[in-house]
Amino acid sequence: MTVGVERRVFVNTELPPSSVDKFGAQLFSYPKNKIKTSKYTIINFLPKNLYEQCRRVANLFFIFLIIFQFVPVFQEMDPIWAIIPLAGVMLVTALKDGYEDLKRHQMDTHLNNSITYIPENWDNLNYPSVNLSWKNYILSSIYWYLSKRFRPKVRKMKRYKESKPAALTIASIIGKESIPLDKGANDGWRKTLWKYVRVGDIICIRNNEMVPADMVILSTCEKDNICYTETKSLDGETSLKIRKGPQETAYISSSNEAKQFKGYIDAEKPSPELQRFTGVLTIPSSKPNNTRSDNEEIIYPEGEQSISLNINNVLLRGSILRNTDWVIGVVLYTGCDTKVILGSGKTPSKRSKIEKSMNPQVVFNFIILFGLSIITAGVHYFVFSKWLKIPTPWINNLNSSIKSTVYALGNAVILLQTIIPISLYVTIEIIKMIHTYWISGDVDMYYEPRDESCIVKTWTISDDLGQIEYVFSDKTGTLTQNKMEFRRCTINGKVYGIKGTDVSLQGKNIELVHAKEAEVEEKMRKQMKAIYNNPYLSEKESLPFIDETLFVDLEKNDEHSEKIKQFFTHVAICHTVLSPKSKDPKDFVYGAESPDEQSLVSTAKDLGFVFTGRDTNHIYLTIQGEEVVYRLLNIIEFNSTRKRMSVIVQDPRDDDIIIFCKGADNIIYERLKGKDDFSNTTLGHLEVFANEGLRTLCIAYRNIPKEEYQVWNDAYIEATKAMENREEKVMEVCERIEKDLVLLGATAIEDRLQDGVPDCIETLLAAGIKVWVLTGDKFETAVNIGYACNLLKKNMLLLVVRSSDNNKEIEEQLITALGQLEQGGSFGMIIEGLALRSVFDNEHYKAMFLNIGVRCDAVICCRVAPKQKSEVVKLVKDNLHAMCLSIGDGANDVSMIQEANVGVGINGEEGMQAAMSSDYVISQFRFLKKLLLVHGRWSYLRIANCVLNFFFKNMVWTFIMFYFQIFNGFSATMIFDYPLWMYYNIIFTVLPVCVIGILDRDVSTTTALKIPQIYASTKKKQSLFTTKRFLLFVLNAVYLSIVSFAIPFLMSLGGALPQGYDDDKKLIGNIIACYGIVVANFTALMYMHSWDVFGTFIILIETFSFFIYIPSAKFFDPETPDLYVLFKMPIFWFGLLLAIMLCIFPMIVIRFAKSMFCPSDLTIVKEMEHQKINFAPQFEVRRIDSPNSTTSNQTQSSVISSIVSDRDTIPLKKTLSAPAYSRYTHHRRMSLYDTKTKTERSNTGFAFSYSEEQPEKDYDNDKDKESPEIVIPEAERRKKQLFNRHSMIVTTHNGKSD
């Protein structure tokens, strides 16, 4: 093979001898194109699900006990009754897991039965049909294994199956039957399902269809053999990309020509990298190939021609063909070998952190169980030995002490097994299922435009939502709406554009602003029609760019008017926007790789400067009705290093050669011919645009002398042909022509975020959650979004780690970044995908990267592949042992969603793969705030307390039974009736823990959202479910069990029972059971944070359930002791009241002391909420000196009053795209530190966070008018400590706290 690749795919060419064995069977195998994201199949569901459930130590223990009880001597009950509870628990869990996986199967079936086209009556020669006898088949298989050249696989390949009508109806992607193929007919192509597509197949993709497998393009409907593809489900980019087939195969336009084409493709091994591919297409040629070595196999003796292939010649699975009628290509990778699937990973089995932590605690319970059992057996040995020495009527003298001790040990394990509650797991499953209902039914997370609410797909990890430490987010479609709109421009020193942005509209009457904008737009349209009736202008859609003075200035025919025309002509020429498919003005739609460029060109079109198309050598414009054809000479494309784009054209009207250049302000200003007042004015306008959160580009041009251009063009052509250091040579040549530019002005575009994203991220950061953005987008776009969504702050120094093929450079950049961190301050890190690839190839680099990321306030990884996203998540999760959440909306986010502890999919515009692979599905990013801070925190609180109370009440019951062994010779005798022993967990004490797990909450929804810092205090070290807290519950259980056993037992020994009642085991056992049940339920009530009417009523009913049980049991079992007489005795109720007081009084005293002398943050917040004390606002106003003020000594009150004027104030309860923003805010310098060049530069051209200063809100107006404010001295005394600890208020400029 050539180029050292591992795959050779033949097209209409017989397999050579090197590719088959002596029996004619091929020596290679490829995976099927059928994909599977589910975990189970019908065959492996039972064993695999049982294995996952047996990872719970308690389940293993109960299986052991069931087996143990089949031994007759240890049969306390029929083993069947022991099997039923465990079987019920495991059945419910299995049904739940099966239902979740069924949804994944349905999605897989939906996709695998999609439609594509292959030639009729055509065979794929990569899979020769070989009929082997059994003898030859075995010999062939042995030869296969011994050759060790390719992976073994069964060689009898399946033929194509005819498509079934039922399968066609469920196909997810079917093109319209009317779309023509083969010049107007569908003849020659037949339908097949995606799952039957194989490597080497020739397939035809139609417009708007998804690509079923990674394929090399042979030909397209375009004359330049190009096509346009949308890859947003792969890399998150919504812009169209150009892909191109080799010119040598462009002639293929029918199925017959495709069947006649011959060739083979050498390709690299499958890789998840979306931006790289290396391959060679070899076709027959009349010219002999003299470059082959003697050892290389010759496929076409008459001659061969080799054509190099790269990623631009490949269509990837999951991409969608756009603006192209058809594409014919050869399948190269299928199924799990495709790049999108390689980057997705396997579907994991997720278990919550509490569930994992329960295993050590269950082991601890085992230690207690076996410890008590051994103590019981050991003491029984000495007691039984003593009994054997004297005549004792109640023992079997035939048993030896050892034998009786063994029996006692086994019976003690069975008797005390209640310390490991079998009903715990099924109770937790039911509680989490109800949590699912709470989450999915939350109207605040309902998205009306799509009629969608939050969908819970994995029930078992709701408590993990309350422990999240890191959020990893995609950008495109997750944070943004993918809508770019042209809002402002500055031309020749004058600003145009008055339409409001998300930032400028803050605090204003939006209805009045929109009404004024409508008037201006109407006036502007009339002005436009007076000059030129633009047929391309839509009458239905509102204009994104409006200004009533623009056309007034344009009509003056002066120098400024010419600058305006030149400016928008520049905008219409300097871009890479695709030619519209339809020339009809009604269907005139642009497609662009960059949404910024599409916005610019669309606005120019609306204003009469229409880009109508392009070909290889020309650009076609219609300038206010006049058709102008510019000769296209060169396009110098934009990249993240150049930060600019240039187009060189020749004006047909005067034959002038002009270079139009646009780019970042600092890049363009360095290349201006000279700087004057106009350039300084424009720079000031750029500052204003940036302060409004707009993305800016400078527009410049230069007339080039023909002689200069000819010399430069020759050098440019030579540089583009260079085989080594091509990019560096091209950039060097481009520097020679992009100089001495004349500034025309600048554009400003609004990149709209989803509603509420800045506020949501600000709240998550306040809650102690770190947010990392992982995107496949470009560096500049990622940074702009980082500023706009409040992730990056204007006082941050951004550490930029650039791509490099030299690992030493990467190491040096990381060392430089660490050095900057040592200087102190606020930092953010931006790292590019290629640099990240080098980082993950070296363990030392990974440690350095993680160290930098943890110490930075924000991290953005741009240009990353899906596999890299999951690697970043895995690095943080495994090395920091942190709880991670990933959120995204495209197929490129599936791998990181599955890698994280919690995966959240956004049901957006990029397909359903992210949603189907996630644990939770929401429609908007802003819903994440309530999902975590309210539902997540409540679920964590409820599940943690529920589990601990479950262990607690079972320990009380177990220790009571152990204490009774002191009085029966440690013979492992049960003090209770067997029904009481069995019903304790099923009936008498199950509802209180269920109430805790379902209804309990410590603070209200409003408080949880207004003070997000309490989320940080709760999740810190997962404080609600720790070993320390578990041991405290154990000690409390020991104490309560002593009280519950001692009081009734001593009461019976003291002769307190009524006359005629003997102190037999059943009677005393029932009295002790009554006390134990009541005490356990009252203690559960004390562990609740909120006593609502419904929950408290249920617990009280459960507490007195024992008194309802006694008459019922008496009816079925006459031997049940009659306690009615006992209930009439005051001593019984006095003892019960005493037991309750002794149990709950210490808890009351301890809590009171803690709240008085060392209150926790949560205690203070609860007191403030209960007493209706005003909360400090989440974002406090700091003193801000206006840059326009005449003196810096201006009083604070006057500054604040100017900031919180009616014009700039917005209520906090109103959630828009951005928090309130004051236009008087003084902005500190934003800067980037390039660790590669070790230089720091201004970041003026980027949009930044909408707000870091919030207008002060008059919270006094929100007080409850009917309830007077009550001030608790203790709460007020501790409030400042709480806020300072979590930075819940902001310090003013002079260091004092508000």
Please outline what is shown here.
With 1298 residues, the protein is an alpha+beta fold. The protein is 43% helix and 15% strand.
Protein model, in words:
- One of its GO terms (cellular component) is plasma membrane.
- Its cofactor is Mg(2+).
- Pfam families: Cation_ATPase, E1-E2_ATPase, PhoLip_ATPase_C, PhoLip_ATPase_N.
- The protein is an alpha+beta fold.
- The protein is 43% helix and 15% strand.
- The protein is built from 41 helices and 33 strands.
- The strands form six sheets. Strands 14-31-30-29-15-25-28-27-26-32-33 form an eleven-stranded mixed beta sheet, with helices on both faces. Strands 17-16-24-23-22-21-20-19-18 form a nine-stranded antiparallel beta sheet, with helices on both faces.
- Helix 3 (79-112) runs parallel beside helix 11 (423-440) and helix 30 (990-999) packs antiparallel against helix 35.
- 44% of the residues are buried.
Mean pLDDT across every amino acid position: 78
Shape: globular
Q: Output the strand order for the largest sheet.
A: 14-31-30-29-15-25-28-27-26-32-33
How much β-strand is present in the residues? Answer: 5-15%
Gyration radius over CA? 38 Å
Number of H- or I-type helical stretches: 41
Oligomer: single chain
Largest sheet, strands/sense/barrel: 11 strands, mixed
In whole angstroms, how far apart are the ends? 74 Å
Helix content bin: 40-55%
The tally of strands reads: 33
